[in-house]
UniProtKB/TrEMBL annotation:
It is a multi-pass membrane protein. PANTHER family: CALCIUM CHANNEL FLOWER HOMOLOG. Belongs to the calcium channel flower family. Pfam families: Cg6151-P. One of its GO terms (biological process) is vesicle-mediated transport. One of its GO terms (cellular component) is endomembrane system. It is found in: Endomembrane system. Its main location: membrane. The chain crosses the membrane at residues 30-50, 56-78, 98-128. This is Calcium channel flower. Keywords: Membrane, Transmembrane, Transmembrane helix.
Length: 151
């Protein structure tokens, strides 16, 4: 079976699967919401006293991953950046397929909750994991003539 993919993506070399708009924008919105939630929960990780060293490492890496997720999802904000790490992340983001984004987002969610368990990280895990789930769902689903159904 031949994989039908959209070849008209402007900013990326990796073709996007043809999925319904609710999955495409839901995955992007949940991923950005999860990045914002991880950025906010990194403050709680810094202030956590229970597991001092693991939570400090988790807080610092959450900030780095928040920027990485923003570079992957909102590439047009970073197109004119002169920073070499941002340019490298833009190149990687342009090659990423949906199934790889799904694995990355779900893996990051599980990793940060395992590193420093807290209610903020748990909420952020569910938001970013939901975005990863929708990316995974979209990588297996193709747009078909369903007569107006959302999925």
């Amino acid at each position: 079976m031949v994989d039908q993919e959209n070849q008209t993506a402007e900013s990326s070399d990796a073709p996007e699967p043809q999925v319904s708009w609710i999955i495409k924008w839901g995955a992007k919105g949940l991923s950005l919401g999860g990045a914002i939630a991880f950025g906010i929960s990194s403050i709680w990780s810094f202030l956590s006293i229970t597991n001092l060293i693991p939570c400090l490492i988790a807080g610092i890496s959450q900030i780095v991953c928040t920027v990485l997720i923003f570079v992957i999802e909102v590439t047009f904000f970073f197109k004119n950046s002169q920073s070499k790490p941002i340019k490298a992340a833009l190149w990687v983001a342009s090659k990423m397929r949906w199934w790889l984004r799904a694995i990355l987002y779900i893996g990051l969610s599980i990793f940060f909750v395992a590193m420093c368990f807290g209610i903020g990280n748990l909420v952020a895990m569910f938001i970013l994991g939901g975005g990863g789930f929708l990316y995974g769902l979209g990588s297996f689903q193709h747009k078909r003539n369903t007569g107006g159904a959302l999925f």
